[in-house]
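Objective 1.3, modelling of assemblies. Example input:
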Amino acid sequence: MIHPVPPGTRDVLPDEMRELRALSGSLHATFDRAGFGEVWTPALEYEEVLRRGDERAAAGFRLFDDRGHVLALRSDATIPIARLVANRYATEPAPLRLCYFAHAYRAVERGSGQAREFLQGGIELIGVGGAEGAAEVIALIVEALSEAGLNRHRIGLGDGMLYRTLLANAGVSDEDAQPLLESLWRRDLVGLEVRIDRLGLTGSARDALVAVPALRGGREVLAKVPGPAAENLSAVHELLAERGVADRVIFDLGLLRDLGYYTGTIFEVYDPAVAFALGGGGRYDELLGRFGPSRPACGAGLDIQRVHVAQIEEERGT
Amino acid sequence: MIHPVPPGTRDVLPDEMRELRALSGSLHATFDRAGFGEVWTPALEYEEVLRRGDERAAAGFRLFDDRGHVLALRSDATIPIARLVANRYATEPAPLRLCYFAHAYRAVERGSGQAREFLQGGIELIGVGGAEGAAEVIALIVEALSEAGLNRHRIGLGDGMLYRTLLANAGVSDEDAQPLLESLWRRDLVGLEVRIDRLGLTGSARDALVAVPALRGGREVLAKVPGPAAENLSAVHELLAERGVADRVIFDLGLLRDLGYYTGTIFEVYDPAVAFALGGGGRYDELLGRFGPSRPACGAGLDIQRVHVAQIEEERGT
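Predicted structure (tokens):
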């Protein structure tokens, strides 16, 4: 008789658990050495707190407490940490460096094979703006993965505002833009082009909306999208070069992240040994202001089990 | 503007988190050296799985998944591990030694000051019966706390069947017994005596039901309750003496644990520096059989944050 666990959740047995504990310990040690202090936030938050961070952040597992308040399981660590910073560090002027290791919960599509419960480890850098903050976060993630034994990981680097700006410049309304952003987020470039043409766009505006999402590669792709996004990405790249990790970067101008709080620089972490992103992050300069004093911020989270799979595949020499 | 967290949950900031991580790491290292392999089970289980372990285990936080199944947040680690053992180790004949570090969730009374989300670390010893299994578990808990720097911890040792047997011998029906067991579990000995008298009991049966819950102390208290429970506790004590930890034991014949799956030996962990139990456990010889092949078992869980408070208080010399 087998007693099932909910879809998208799983048991972890001792051999795997030993490796996951070692991996988490290694990542934590790197974050700790870099001055990122670990915090814990409750797995349960008031739904309205998560929704204040992002409308879709409480779309997962919701329940009522004994007073009828709606609670939700955290779907990421960043929104709860933004709440924590507003509650506990509102008057702290210096940059804050925080890290976390915690499970997050998402209601994913059935059959997608995606986890509903997944262990995340990550960092949040509060109070350091622009390219400088992004470069510190990206370089530390690269270092943490190297320390954990990964050798081939890459950073896909993009700008969360780039495509939104192109849409605004082309005169596309926010309402019309939404399904296009959905297609882009799903990497459905064929569907994206169909939707662009349905809007009746022509000329250079149409061409840019179709071409930019496919732009991937070295610094040369930045020349094809002049403007603030390219300047920002160029600055991040220079700072990463100073930190000796620029060779890890692949510019990916079609990159979008799923949670809506990102502003400016965004990135994902890849490993050629596996087909999925190991994690990602970006700047979220407007999130803190939804809970307390406005502060620039940048963060990154890694899916520990995915990093573990990449570790194994690299060791196998796949 | 303060954004509240749900009652009974809390944020943990870096200074405390660093100590909690060190404490968990120390406990884990002791469990690991003793051959207890760490497992992880999902925080969400099907309600019917938890209820199979104990009727009240799913009384806490419940929610629906997208197919209308009722899920619940685990309220302890033992029932999910019993499920895991049935699913993954059903044909494993040798004793299994497992440990865990995970948060559990309980709907507690408002204003009780108790945590709704609490971090537990513990062990489960499957397939070693009787006093031998209980002594191994108790001795390892004592050792783990000593390794973590606690010096004054004590084990309150009782038998989960003792009072139930006294009630049955006195002819008290299961229905009438329930409120008495509730009073005993709450350590409400005055209320217990009132309820006993309401049942119209007299003579030695009444006297035993009133007197036994107050019996605490050294081996001498066992002489006052001859029978299988006293023989069992005496055997556990002898095995703990062989392991050099018998001086930690205080017999507590009124001890009851809150979850209904315990059979035989039960215990709680105390520290004179703090007023609350740091954890506890006991034999649960009938739990595995509710999920798969019947096997004797014994386990113990520690509330990591309470152990941390005791650590601090001991260091302060309180």
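Chain A touches chain B through 53 residues (CB under 8 Å).
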